[in-house]
Amino acid sequence: MSSINKNIDLDSLYRKVIMDHYKNPRNRGVMQDESDIKINMNNPTCGDRIQLQLKVEDGIVTDVKFDGEGCSISMSSASMMSQAIKGQKIEKALRMADVFSKMMLGEDYDDTGLDLGDIEALAGVAKFPARIKCATLCWKAMEKGLHEHEDHEH
């Protein structure tokens, strides 16, 4: 199989993964009990909106919920992120956000010790600068929330 066919197959697989998260979002909804962190962010250029709720216990993200509206990239990124950071230490969640940001900017990154799961399906977004903000919105919300939480704790 030529490398062109492999790339097409990979792009097709990635599109399927993205659409699966868009149509069947993980951790979508609103926490019934009070969350520790609640962040609302939007991307005015394309209308993506996200409300992110995080529950943190002993430095670990124990629960994640998101709600909002936006394009398939924005909403599937939120679904993937929610799965990736749930159960992780704050430091690891923030490191994932840094790796994701570098991935979107096409920079080198070190994901040693991180399980990015489906997130790698979004790597192709880096080729479309207008869509990068869509993919990173939820990550920026998570970073903001966790930093504010850490500042509160200290």
TrEMBL record:
UniProt domain NIF system FeS cluster assembly NifU N-terminal: residue ranges: 14-134
GO molecular function annotation: iron ion binding; iron-sulfur cluster binding
GO biological process: iron-sulfur cluster assembly
Entries under InterPro entries matching the protein: NIF_FeS_clus_asmbl_NifU_N (IPR002871)
CDD domains in the record: IscU_like
Pfam family, one: NifU_N
Family: Belongs to the NifU family.
Protein's name according to its UniProt entry: Nitrogen fixation protein
Organism: Schinkia azotoformans LMG 9581
Lineage of producing organism: Bacteria, Bacillati, Bacillota, Bacilli, Bacillales
